[in-house]
Please model this.
Amino acid sequence: MDYEIMMNGTVKIGQRAPEFEAQSTMGQINLNDYKGKWVVFFSHPGDFTPVCTSEIIAFAKASTYFDKLNACLLGLSVDSNASHLAWLYDIYMKTGIRVPFPIIADRNGEIARKYGMISNDISTTETVRNVYIIDDKGIVRLILVYPMNVGRCIPEILRALQALQVADENKASTPANWIPCEPVILPPPTTFEELLKQNEEIIKKRNGMSWYLRFENPKNCKIIE
Model:
């Protein structure tokens, strides 16, 4: 069996997020502490590195937007807690920005490997830039993986988070390039009678292309400001 497959986790969309308990910059935390909240769990390759520093600052600036979506930010790297604290203090002293979310110290890489955050072809110790969106029931709903030299787009992570929540709320899907509170895609019909009815709705409301692609304004959607 391939060493990386054997050692690294195989977290997939739709499965329960693996549990863990760890030390962080905000004390001991457990994934169970976040029940009832959405979690944006992300890894970074290393403290005191340029791209990671820009990302931590960007996440910190956007933290209130995640709060409004009932979501908590949670970072991780294989650096020590002391290193994390020194790094966050340096950011605070240089920019005045206080990072309002915990960063996990995963010195032995146990959590990183459980989640598949380490790509041995790139590094056997540093994590790549993974993002896991975990819903309020503890289920992994979205996975993004960026290489070490490409910073993440925080607005896209926010957009994807809200897309998941709006799709769930409306029992619908979001189309390509969906922007919060734009129309969503209704489920296609499963019977011929439903097909005919849906076509009638499209002709009447001019809200679709064909029986299998019909749009509707989402309910309970808000623009996050």
